[in-house]
Amino acid sequence: MRLSVVGCGYLGAVHAAAMASIGHEVVGIDVDAVKVAALAEGRAPFFEPGLGEILSEGIASGRLSFTTDMAAAKGAAVHFVGVGTPQQKDGYAADLTYVHAAVDALVPFLSPGDVVAGKSTVPVGTAADLTPRVAATGATLVWNPEFLREGWAVQDTIDPDRLVVGVPAGDEGARAADILRDVYHPAVGKGTPFLVTDLATAELVKVAANAFLATKISFINAMAEIAEVTGADVTQLADAIGHDARIGRRFLGAGIGFGGGCLPKDIRAFSARAEELGRGESVAFLREIDAINMRRRDRAVDLVVQSLGGTVYGKRVAVLGAAFKPHSDDIRDSPALDVAVRLKGLGADVIVTDPEAIDNSRRIHPQLDYTPHRDDAIADAEAVVVVTEWDEYRKDLTPQHASTLTTGRIIIDGRNCLDATAWRTAGWTYHGMGRP
Ligand code: UDX
Question: In which family does this protein belong, per the annotation (predicted)?
């Protein structure tokens, strides 16, 4: 099938390459000529495992191309729209400028019978707002939210847990749903749940899923706060409640909390939209989820300050991690970098290391010092802070090895990813999050 993908950021670039890898003929369109040039050469403009391979394969096969020219969308049966919906500069609501601009630019190239499939995460009601403009061309607007996780984006796109398509009522919607079923034929063929809903439900599914995940993380972080004043261990608590299948252990990792380009902004935009709809109280708890999340960053900084005798001023602190999570070079709203910046603000001599995210970090926070080498960061540090649970720090770094690099012997485990006993036995002072 011929497909266009409008917006080649994180979501769109992966979607375009993944759709080509399952046999479709795909053109990716973006206004950013630099990004388009990189993608057209098969180079991923960001770190995402497996993306480089499927980009190169797609381009070599002749089925995948990238351009800045929207006219290239003409003739495609389905047009995916995957542009960004960032948080507004002066508030919590989502900025829909790019979504509206993309649809307006696409409209002149639509033909009757085409399907426009919105993938961006949007406030509920956006699809209804856009529908008249698309419908005027004889095309059908549907909403097909994307649930991919960074670091697993290729796998999540090709083999998702579920597919959700919101469609308009009647035959037009049923036909559009059938077309989307064909697009995703390999996943549908192997029994992946394919849920057809109305437009508003599809928009809400995405924000509800992210709100639930954020709630799960802040719930366990709230338990960490209680554990901290009672001597309990939140990781044992998470294991114990996680055995209840109704609760489940995943996303019960207490630590410095969630960040990234989705969860923080999506729960804020959801609150803002609920308030516009007169239902602010229904999701008022999301403000608390956000507040708990931000407090964990304070806690990590406090632990460093306390363990260094009440001040970090002039003291060398190694910060292991900058990305908002492992397997990503994304530093958007990264709790790891926030901790580093706060320590620097308190006068610490901070040195940050990360396997993938240093270039991005340096651009945004040039005031911090960086090294690509973990051991150089640890060398002579008075305290070591693990803030992103890369294998390089979680598995490969032993207390014996770290002891050869510094006499500091203080480690703060912001992700509860280290073996506390092993570090203590080796003579280190270990502090976890919500652990005695
Ligand atoms: C998230 C959703 O998982 C995905 O479905 C959606 O499409 C986009 O938003 P992503 O932002 O890639 O994906 O990251 P995710 O793996 O969900 O992690 C989000 C943040 O939560 C990270 O900062 C991570 O470190 C943190 N986290 C995750 C925890 O603090 N504890 C956990 O137990 C799990």
Answer: Belongs to the UDP-glucose/GDP-mannose dehydrogenase family.
CATH T-level fold of 2-197 = Rossmann fold (3.40.50)
Query: Rounded to an integer, what distance in angstroms lies between the CA atom of residue 410 and that of residue 402?
Result: 10
- Is 1.10.357.10 the CATH number for 231-436? no
Q: Are 167 and 176 in contact (CB under 8 A)?
A: yes
Parse the chain into domains and list their residue ranges: 2-197, 231-436
Ligand 1 near 102 CB (within 6 A): no
Pick from 262, 295, 297 the residue to mutate for probing ligand 1's pocket: most ligand atoms within 8 Å of its CB: 262
> In sequence order, which residues have a C-beta less than 8 Å from that of residue 170 and are 6 or more positions away?
none
The verdict on whether residue 206 carries a ligand-binding annotation is yes
422-433 pLDDT per residue, tens: 999 999 999 999
Tally DSSP H helices, then E strands, for the chain: 18, 14
pTM: 0.96
ipTM given for this complex: 0.98
pLDDT in tens, 265-303: 999 999 999 999 999 999 999 999 999 999 999 999 999
Cα–Cα distance for residue pair 72/426, rounded to 1 Å: 62
DSSP symbol at 29: E
